[in-house]
Amino acid sequence: MRILVIEDERTLADFVEQGLRAEGHAVTVQHDGESGEAAALTGDYALVLLDLMLPGKSGLDVLDAIRARLPDLPVIILTARAAIEQKVKGLDRGANDYVTKPFSFDELLARVRAQLRSPGQRESSALEAADIHLDLRTRRVEREGREIELTAREFDLLVYLMRHPDQVLSREQILNAVWGFDVDPGTKVLEVYVGYLRRKLGVFGSTDPIETVRGVGYRLRVPRG
To answer: How crowded is residue 85: how many other Cβ atoms within 10 Å of its Cβ?
Structure first.
C-alpha cells in the first residue's frame, strides 16, 4: 500500500518510514504542510499519517483540504497534543484516528492495518502460538488452559512476539515496536520485561517459549509437529 507521511520531525518521520517499509508499504515523506497537502491531493495514496504542528500550513488546514477533495482517504493524526479538545477538533474535522506522541510502532501499525482493512474484512482478535492463547479484545492470556495475569507492557511485548512467531527479532525492533521511537537503546528495560514474561509463562512448569538469540535479540519458539 502507498502511504504518505506528513511529519516535520525528521527523526520520527524516518522511524515511521523505515517501519512501514519493513512491513511492505511504499512510503512518501513530506516535512511541511504545503508540500504535504500537494502530495496528498495529487498522489494515489491509501492512507495519510498527518502531524498537526507543521511549518508553512497547519495539519488541520491540510486535513480540511484533503477532506474537501478526497473525503474517503483515511487520515491518522500524529501529534504531541494530548489534550482532549485537540483530539476532538481533529476528529471533528475528519480524521479517522488519532495517535499521541510518543507511541509504540506496534500500536501505530495496528491502527494503520485497521484503516487499510477493506469493508467487511475483520482481523482476528485472537493470537495462538507456543501453546499460548491471547485475546486482543479482552486482553486475556492463557497457556495450557490456565489464565496468566500480565501488566499492560508485558501484554504488549507478548503480542509483538506472538505476531512474529519463530522470527528472530532484534532488540531495536522490539524496543521501537513496544516502547516507541524515543526509547534509549542502551536501556535494559527489554531484558527486565522478558524476564517477567518468562517467569509468568513458565509458572505452571511449562517450558520457556522465549529464546535469547545472543548478540541479536529474541524469538518466540513454536514447537514443530
So the answer is: 8
Q: Which residues contact 87 (CB under 8 A, 6 or more apart)?
A: 81, 98, 100
> How far is the C-alpha of 139 from the C-alpha of 126, rounded, in Å?
9
Q: Within 10 Å of residue 217's Cβ, how many Cβ atoms?
A: 19
In angstroms, the CA 40 to CA 18 distance is 20
Pick from 193, 194, 201, 188: nearest CA to 219: 194
Per-position b or e across 31-56, b if 16+ CB within 10 A of its CB: bbbebbbebbeeeebebbbbbbebee
Q: What is the helix (H) or strand (E) element at residue 130, kind and residue range?
A: none
Q: What is the pLDDT along the chain (225 residues), one digit of tens a residue?
A: 799 999 999 999 999 999 999 888 889 999 999 999 999 998 889 999 999 889 999 999 999 999 998 988 999 999 876 666 777 778 888 899 989 888 889 889 999 998 988 554 445 578 899 889 998 878 899 998 899 999 988 998 998 899 889 989 988 888 877 887 666 777 899 999 999 999 999 866 668 899 999 999 999 998 775
- pTM higher than 0.90 for the full model? no
What grid cell was written down for 187?
536501556
Residue type, 113: R
140 in helix, strand or coil? strand
> What is the dihedral angle through the alpha carbons of 34, 6, 14, 83, rounded to the nearest 10 degrees?
120
